[in-house]
Design a protein that fits this description.
Length: 148
Amino acid sequence: MRCERLPQTMKRRQFLAATGVASVTTLAGCGGGGGTPTVAADEVAATITINEDDSFDPPIVEVEPGAAVEWDNQAGEERQIRSNDRLNDASEWQFEADLEDGDTARFVFEEGGKYGYHEAEETWFRMCGAVAVGDASEDDISGLRCEQ
């Protein structure tokens, strides 16, 4: 399943106001595993900024099941974010977001686990990050070579 980026000409708040309830349905569909998210469509539990120095800030976030995580591209150029199963004991998931500069993308994590991601144009061990969901914590994340 693919979560789409927000249109470049429309900012996040404008988009949410324009789509209203439809955005809740869309976000729930991007979460994989079904169900209704426990956060409202306009609430984000964690924001990961894609920086000009080819890094994610922060590289690891912790959220509860049903929470939305947002990637915000501030790199000054297009970035392609992809799920990554190379993290030790990683949960399998499907995520792709092609983001122009200034665009954002969200994913609702329905189930607990450790979810890795990386920038598709960079090597997976150079520009990567992880989301710890539920009982998983930042301390449980191992094998995230881009932090070394």
